Amino acid sequence: MTPRFTRSAGRIAHVLLFTCGSLFAQQGELPPLRRSFAEVATPVPPFPEGTKGPKFEPRPGETIAWIGGTEIADLDRYGFLEAGMQLAWPELGLRWRNLAWQGDTVYRQARPMYFYTKAGDPQPGSVPDHRERTEPGIVFIAFGKMESLEGTERLPDFVAAYAKLIDDLLPLTKRIILVEPTPFFESGPAAHHAGERNTVLASYGEAIERLAEERKLLFVRAAADWKAAMSDNGVHLNETGHLAWADALLDQIGAGDRKETNGSPPLHDAIARKNLLWQQYYRPTNWAFLFGDRQHVPASRDVEKREERWFVREIDALPALIAGAEADIQRYAKEATK
Question: Which residues lie closer than 8 Å to 141 by C-beta, 6 or more apart?
Fold first, then answer.
């Protein structure tokens, strides 16, 4: 069972974030995750229909984005799933963007003030956040595990928040995939709670699957052969767990025998390099000095040319480096599948 004080603190946090979210809404800003995507005139069309519903079928040059919490943010540390997709469809030149953030839940996505906003900080000399937005394409959504710790009594709130997130994204793309949460494990300090936690988690997984059916979206199960050793803390997957999960997910989306999640060292190295560059771009350190409310201080300026912003100059150089790393990924994927 979740301690009472934890539930109370969680509800207080939700209220605080709702207040901040309302402030942005009053300023005409979109929700944090929606702001991370480029706007489009018409949404990306849905997946084609297969014999058992929507069929995963990426398009040339398509962006695959991930939304979730800590476990999804860790996909950048373990490139098995990204490598498997590149090796399954090497001719398509797919791009991968991880928009997850540690601690994110379906209720709350905390971001620095002015993160991907339209206007930015109002102080003189400040510039708005002008980073490139992620192009809408295929979006995987993976929430529910940490939310389930609040019990089945919060399941209606979870479904409502999840449905709103889907509604926020549907004007951008219809190619949305809902992901079943991975289980809790009999390892770590709360190993003895794994059974009861997974019972509650199953209810959340069923609710996510119903949402997918109602919205005619793809749903993928966490169908690996799970073992306690696949998590060090009983909650998040370790390297072995991520490898098993990648294999299971790739099977479900139709990669089949074409996948090879743990091969081609040059490909994995290129993926690791690209992911590091992407996180430096999407989640830069010292946000207040970059696009926040400390842009006017001397430390935010070039030492010799005080009118220039050295931090902004460095951030603006990253898209070209990311593109170069992605070109390497696509080249190594093709070479590995010849």
Answer: 67, 68, 162, 165, 166, 169, 176, 177, 178, 179
d(CA 82, CA 76): 9
H-run or E-run covering 67: strand 63-68
CB 206 within 8 A of CB 162: no
CATH code of the domain in which 59 resides: 3.40.50.1110
Residue in the block written with tokens 């102080």: 123
Phi, psi of 49 (to 5 degrees): -80, 130
* Amino acid sitting at position 248: A
Please check whether residue 286 is in contact with residue 255, taking contact to mean a CB–CB distance below 8 angstroms.
no
Are 172 and 44 within 8 A, CB to CB? yes
Quick: pLDDT tens for 90-137. Answer: 999 999 999 999 999 999 999 998 899 888 888 887 888 999 999 999
Q: How far is CA 145 from CA 132, 260, 261, in A?
A: 30, 27, 24
Tens digits of per-residue pLDDT, 172-203?
999 999 999 999 999 999 999 999 999 999 99
Decide if 144 contacts 181 (C-beta within 8 A): yes
The answer to whether residues 112 and 34 touch, using CB atoms and an 8 Å cutoff, is no
CB atoms within 10 A of CB 215: 17
Domain assignment present for 291: no
How is residue 297 annotated by DSSP?
S
User: pTM of the predicted model, to two decimals?
Assistant: 0.90
The answer to whether residue 63 is domain-embedded is: yes
Q: Phi first, then psi: give them for residue 67, nearest 5 degrees.
A: -125, 130
Number of domains forming the structure of the chain: 1
